[in-house]
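Tutorial handout. Part one gives the primary structure; part two gives the three-dimensional structure as tokens.
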Amino acid sequence: GKVNPSGKLPITFPKRDQDLPLQSTEQYPGVNDVAHYSEGLLVGYRWYDARGIEPLFPFGYGLSYTTFAYKDLKITEPTDNQDVTVEFTVTNTGQRAGAEVAQLYVGLPSLPKVPQPPRQLKGFRRVELDPGQSVQVKIPLNARSLSYWEVASHSWKVAPGTYKVSAAASSRDLQLNGTFAIK
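Part two.
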């Protein structure tokens, strides 16, 4: 083809019907026109990640006529406002020009009363690269993107603890991993 595909999947495709998260008629289609959504934050790729189920095609997966490499993960220390910047390099290691959608996933600290998925998409950047070309990708994370909803106080909170960061080609193709701490 003359054009190199660079699209990424916005959903997860299961390998088997049994791998789907729908488990009861209460959840879908519901009883007496009322559906009970008991999955909490574990929707889409987060459900597969939390349960360790390997999908056929993960969220963020895509095809290309070239290949890409990720390297040099850098994470800034949190500011007083709890802002963090994540930087990494993406290189086109193939023989054709192409575009990559670099994705950033963050795993929040474990909270006993607020279960969190292993990781959540918090940012992405599309970069177009010629063969052999590299680009520095910078994705800022503000306090809101690092927060969780606390039901008791009806507000967003940033939890103290260790945050896990992954620069990725898809929700399952984690290329670089690192951590940072918020006190």
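Part three, for discussion. The beta strands are 68-75, 84-92, 98-107, 120-129, 134-141, 147-150, 155-158, 161-168, 174-182. The chain has one domain: 17-182.
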